[in-house]
Design brief:
about 130 residues, Jelly Rolls, mainly beta, about 15% helix
Length: about 130
């Protein structure tokens, strides 16, 4: 394995570890592709938050945009008022902005999230 591939594999493992910290939260990576600029990549993730659970405050090294498929949530983004989101709603979280999402309904909340992030960095890091 080349040093570049080894670093990429370590970055992926670190990002998955950071994402797996919150109980009641499941993220499943569906697709990952590098962008032509050689600096960024696009990552498509299916996210599920169990009723009453939260993602925990975290940030991403790039933009996150998504579409809510099911359930009811409250999205709290640093510097913005909380937003209630449900099926059919979309959202955008600026790069590096701390945020948290809680499932407030009786069933799980599910969304498709797309990240445009810097390659080689963890997809998510905890935020105070």
């Amino acid at each position: 394995m080349t040093p570049v591939r080894a670093l990429a594999a370590l970055a992926l493992l670190a990002s998955l570890a950071a994402l797996a910290q919150a109980p009641g939260l499941q993220r499943r990576e569906l697709q990952r592709a590098p962008l032509a600029d050689g600096v960024h990549e696009v990552v498509l993730v299916q996210v599920e938050v169990a009723p009453g659970s939260a993602s925990g405050r975290h940030r991403h090294p790039g933009v996150e945009t998504g579409y809510v498929l099911a359930g009811e949530t409250v999205l709290e983004v640093e510097g913005e008022p909380p937003r209630r989101l449900g099926p059919g709603d979309s959202y955008l979280i600026p790069a590096g902005r701390a945020h948290d999402v809680r499932a407030t309904g009786t069933g799980p909340a599910r969304a498709l999230a797309t990240f445009v992030v810097e390659r080689g960095k963890p997809l998510a890091t905890p935020a105070p």
